[in-house]
Design goal:
single chain, mainly alpha, 6 helices, disordered C terminus
């Protein structure tokens, strides 16, 4: 019996990060700090060993456990692509599913970051306008200017020091 080749830690971290911790097929959540174990299954696009679905004997062991050949799925979808409906999931289709899922995750996290930054800046301005600044201790240059500092980190400090409106 051949020994199972496990993906290296950087590959696992990249898989979870690029997949938003969700199944590439059904978007089911795969991790939660309060769960006793991770639900994710690290699945091979091209099979891991002879006899497995989509096995490619020309692949090296390193290629088999590379980021490009792996994807995260929930247990149900893993069984579907490898056992019950394997013929419906050729290599090309799985690569397409993985790529589309990673693209959705990238777009979601980028748009979330943008909205989050804009919301923070709007919150800073709104809190600043509603607050009586004379009750708080701020650096004199901030009080003289009558507006929050321009540097983003300083703005966050400004909001934190203002406290709730």
């Amino acid at each position: 019996m051949t020994r199972k080749l496990l993906p290296r830690d950087p590959v696992l971290k990249a898989l979870f990060a690029s997949s938003c911790n969700s199944c590439a097929m059904c978007d089911e959540r795969l991790t939660d700090p309060q769960w006793p174990r991770v639900l994710a299954r690290v699945c091979h696009i091209k099979g891991e060993r002879p006899g497995s679905a989509r096995y490619d004997e020309s692949q090296t062991d390193e290629e088999r456990r590379s980021f490009e050949n792996l994807m995260l799925l929930c247990p149900n979808d893993h069984a579907k692509i490898d056992d019950t409906h394997a013929a419906e999931y050729p290599v090309e289709r799985l690569i397409e599913i993985k790529t589309q899922h990673e693209d959705r995750c990238t777009q979601a996290t980028e748009s979330m970051r943008w909205r989050d930054d804009g919301a923070r800046l709007n919150e800073v301005v709104a809190v600043f306008r509603r607050t009586d600044r004379t009750k708080h201790q701020y650096p004199k240059k901030w009080l003289r200017s009558g507006r929050p500092p321009h540097h983003a980190l300083s703005r966050v400090v400004w909001v934190l020091r203002l406290g709730p409106p």
